[in-house]
Fold this sequence. Notes:
Layout: E1 2-6, E2 23-27, E3 29-33, E4 37-41, E5 47-51, E6 55-58, E7 61-62, E8 71-76, E9 82-88, E10 91-94, H1 97-102, H2 109-112
Antiparallel strand pairs: 1-2, 1-6, 3-4, 4-5, 6-7, 8-9, 9-10
Amino acid sequence: MKIKYVNPIWERRHVYGFPVRQYQTYVGNQIDETFGEITLQRADGFIHRLNKANIVSIDNNQVDFDIPQDIKISVVGSKGDLYDVERVQGIDRCSCPAFKFRKKCKHLEALAA
């Protein structure tokens, strides 16, 4: 799989002392896909997590992902702790310890409701 991706530093290219290309190309096998990201693994084992909002084309075919609206809510955990759960540009995040280690947690279910 070959993905053409908007360079994340393109908007601030004027502050860098070296030339910055507008697009980057990533090649590898897709190993995961979520609402907001595609995860690729290169042949050497290196893994790229790419935000779908910045993907221009996949295998030279133009793409336009339907990125969900940004949401931010607070969720009470099972022990009464308050966690921030958010979806920004289609990427889900939670402030709980489980999400920090596994990138998944039960609090993300609140975003679906």
